[in-house]
Amino acid sequence: MSPVAWLPSPAEVEAHVAVMLARDSLNLGESSAQDRMMLMLTRSCELRCSYCFVGLTEDGRGVDHSGRADPVTQQEVPGQPVGDMSGSTLQAAVDWLMRSERDRLGIQFFGGEPTRRSKYVRAAMRYALDHPKRRGRPLEFLLTSNGLSLSPARLAPYVGLPLTLQFSLDGDARQSRFRRPLAASPEAAWRATEAAIDALQASGLSWFMNATLPPAAAGEVEQRYHWARSRGLPMLQLNYATGMAWSPEQERAYLTGLTAVLDHHRAHPDGLRLLNWANGADPAPLCGDMIVDVDGSVYQVGALFHERRSPSLKRSYRIGHLSDLGARFTGRRWSLAALAERTREALTGPAREVFFANVALGAAVDLVVERAREQGLPT
Ligand code: SF4
Fold first, then answer.
1. Is the dihedral of CA 56, 234, 164, 196 positive or negative?
2. Residue 324 CB partners (closer than 8 Å, separation 6+)
3. What is the whole-number distance in angstroms between the Cα of residue 376 and the centre of ligand 1?
4. What is the pLDDT of residue 304?
5. How far apart are CA 104 and CA 304, in angstroms?
6. Is there a contact between 86 and 65 (Cβ–Cβ < 8 Å)?
7. 193 CB less than 6 Å from ligand 1?
8. Ligand 1 in contact with 111 (CB < 6 A)?
């Protein structure tokens, strides 16, 4: 039984939302030393997680998109381009990032399942590392993966690169019930997941479990954490799912579970690094990152995170196309306050309510972490 948690009041949450919008993204705002870019390599994925609102499709898998701004993106309610990101679009995206004026750089490979384009991922890493405009600046790669195709042979080429692998993983076979395989059986998908964990553990690569809890799993925060510990995983990040309506009881259960996890980890920091200790994250639906789509269109990342749930956001979150963005990278993203304003204009009714309720939950999470940090950090 978890102890009664401190939970912020609605007034405290509302005030903190205003603070978060005013200060902008701590990772990517004006005071940050880093510029970062996400790459949507493909819309193909072996899974169809129930909390995922990216517009996934197996149409056009393995076919390079031309890299010209896709006409579907110009529709009143923009559609999604079909095909995978080509090598030349990848190069153009890296060229654009290298125009950054900041001291540190980051690239996140995303999808769909980006390892379905492994050849391109490795080529893009080499291209970025050797880029003349990098000028020796630290460059970090983040590779998001569902893990199903990771094997020792597939991981070997990444060893020694400045890479962290973000493994979307929701705990044991039962806790992973929200991750539905598209073609394989759930049992086969789980066997592949277990094999990927073993391969990653043996690889020496930096990696973490990225667990996303939908409202139906609000009470399972502690289970995810204890499973990660029992499995000997090196790092864990716990997240709440966005694009979904959370009842007050579910929000309370999530925040209470998170508090219990932070308390437990403060007393038992050994073994597992809990990434949730770092507060000051963007309130999840309003994320500060920019993402390049398969056709070279550039958006604030929420456009693709919420593509199926709120397609009208794409028009408001569009920044441009690689071919017409010009030389400047730094400062092209929308601030969180500007994004919130654009969202208010783009969404109506329940979609808007859910979006901003999710933002408020992000602010509540930030306050819970802040409060836990005041009680002491793990030593
Ligand atoms: S593994 Fe990732 S991209 Fe694939 S369905 Fe799940 S959340 Fe979406």
1. negative
2. none
3. 35
4. 94
5. 25
6. yes
7. no
8. yes
Nearest atom in ligand 1 to 112's CA: 3
Q: pTM of the full predicted structure?
A: 0.95
**Cα of 177 from ligand 1 centre, angstroms:** 13
**Atom 8 of ligand 1 has which residue's CA nearest to it?**
52
What is the residue type of 46?
A: E
- What is the predicted pLDDT for the residue at 157? 95
Q: Would you tell me how many other CB atoms lie within 10 Å of the CB of residue 369? A: 19
* Cα-to-chain-centroid distance, residue 23: 21
Phi, psi of 147 (to 5 degrees): 85, -10
| Cα of 40 from ligand 1 centre, angstroms | 12
The minimum-distance atom of ligand 1 relative to the CA of 212 is 7
Tell me the β-bridge partners of 220: none
pLDDT in tens, 287-327: 889 999 999 999 999 999 999 999 989 999 999 999 999 88
**CA 113 – ligand 1 centroid, Å:** 7
Q: Strand (E) positions, 19-98? A: 34-40
Low-confidence ranges of the chain (pLDDT < 70): 1-4
Helix extents (H) in 67-174? 87-97, 118-129, 152-155
- If one counts every other C-beta atom within 10 angstroms of the C-beta of residue 142, the result is 17
Looking at ligand 1, which atom is closest to the CA of residue 54? 8
Task: Determine whether the shortest distance from the Cβ of 291 to ligand 1 is under 6 A.
Answer: no
What is the best residue among 42, 45, 109, 193 to mutate for testing ligand 1's pocket, by most ligand atoms within 8 Å of CB?
A: 45
- To 10 degrees, what angle do helices 10-23 and 349-374 make? 90
Torsion of CA 368, 370, 375, 378, to 10 degrees: 100
Burial 7-30 (b: 16+ CB within 10 A, else e): bbeeeebeebbeebbeebbebbee
Q: What's the pLDDT score for residue 3?
A: 56
Q: Going from the N-terminus, what domains does the chain have, and what CATH number goes with each? A: 10-374 (3.20.20.70)
Give dist(CA 289, CA 108) in Å, integer: 10
